[in-house]
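Quick illustration for those who missed Monday's session on complexes.
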Amino acid sequence: MPWVRCPTCPGSDLKWFRDLEEKEYGPAELAVLALFPEETPFRPAAYQRCTRGSCRRVQRKDRWKTGASLPEGL
Ligand SMILES: [Zn+2]
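Prediction with zinc ion bound:
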């Protein structure tokens, strides 16, 4: 599991990220493309999710600044 920066979590330490689950593909696409339309076509495999607590941050594996938060409940 990658150990990378999460801009949503408090603190400057790194966090563990994991690959997206299939149920997260659609919501992640909507959230990310709303902020980064240039990411079309959305490739779920290029993204990862923060695993810390209730954090819902999803971001690109190769560019942590390109990302968004999944809706509540996911
Ligand atoms: Zn996080």
